[in-house]
Automatic annotation (TrEMBL):
The keyword Transferase applies. InterPro entries: Cys/Met-Metab_PyrdxlP-dep_enz, OAc-hSer/O-AcSer_sulfhydrylase, PyrdxlP-dep_Trfase, PyrdxlP-dep_Trfase_major, PyrdxlP-dep_Trfase_small. Gene3D superfamilies: Aspartate Aminotransferase, domain 1, Type I PLP-dependent aspartate aminotransferase-like (Major domain). The keyword Chaperone does not apply. This is Cystathionine gamma-synthase family protein. Signal peptide: none annotated. Belongs to the trans-sulfuration enzymes family. It comes from the Bacteria. Its cofactor is pyridoxal 5'-phosphate.
Amino acid sequence: MTTPEPLNFTTQIVHADRWGGAEHGAIHKPIHTSVQYGYERVEDLIAVFQGTAKGGFNYARQGTPTTAALEAKITQMEGGTGTVCFATGMAGICAIFLTLLKAGDHLVASRFVFGNTNSVLGTLADLGIEVSTVDVTDSAEVAAALRPNTRMVFVETIANPGTQIPDLAAIGQLCRDRGLLYVVDNTVASPYLFRPAAVGAGLVVNSLTKSIAGQGGALGGAVTDTGLFDWSAYPNIFAAYRKGDARGWGLQQLRKKGLRDMGATLSSQAAHQIALGAETLALRMDRTSATALALAQWLEQQPGVARVLYPMLPSHPQHARAQQWLRAGSWLLSFELADPSRCMEFCNRLRLPIKATGLADTRTLIIPVAHTIFWEAGPAVRASMGIADGMIRLSVGLEDPADLIADLAQALA
Ligand SMILES: *Cc1c(COP(=O)(O)O)cnc(C)c1O
């Protein structure tokens, strides 16, 4: 059955499995647990190995029919040409860096990135890859950092935890002009709020653990090719993958080197759970974004709160950009108390937000950032990332907004 076009976001996701041909009439894609895939004719096995067969599986480290069905859904959501799934978002990010960069290359990365991504940047420097971290809210800083050996620019759509929004379109233009691979981590926004293809991204990263799975019950990651980058001009594609249509070269190398060699494979069980979560992505993003905006507006009026960081507040430094590109502001909201020494007491008085790391669960999660996820980074790095000692991050869940506001009010009192 072929896909009837055009379908809107959620319709597309909930019917996606049928277009590939439902197995035994199963409404949901089955969980395939076979590690081995066999063929009647050895020629068919050879075709799978040599990549001349369309689709086809050989060993589950490189994917199964269940992970492939999820990859197809994410490709549709991001408006891309293909996707490779990984065991976690970090596995996807590491696969991009380690399979597409070489010693002597230069990477320009956002200074405002997820803490573990920041940690990987340090590892890359030790492997001989030069890394510059810049304030990507200003594209002039990115332009000034470029060198003759720059290969890639890496940003997050809505940075965690400071909610900075890069100059997404201007950086895209810069990358197009210079032939650079533009990688956008779209984890917080998700393809429902924003598609990085719209600003010229070549690769899009999603930690499926967060917005897309959305229930705090499965880890996963995905890298999607938007089809906008010219892989034939990219020097780091191995000779073995410089065959056939150049549009597939990047993902082919990511699958072979990132999954086959490095082995951070998404299980079929997790892929199934993530696919179920993806069906309610739009509903959850609408709900949590509306609640987060209500909380942000309320917090901004409280004398006990010094600063609120939320893209859809007019006070946000990149508010105009957020309005231009994002459908809504997402579940990520950070704020600072007027008296940072009250941070622990405030968190402890809250009854609903759960003191935990993690993002995009169905329950609201709260964490003091400097003392936990950015503790290892140290004070100098925290200061350069705009993380104040009293910064508190909320991942807003599905609770009724009035209950959350009442709880915040009693804790602030
Ligand atoms: C959580 C997160 C990641 C890493 O994803 P995992 O699935 O936890 O490995 C990457 N980028 C951002 C922006 C994240 O929030």
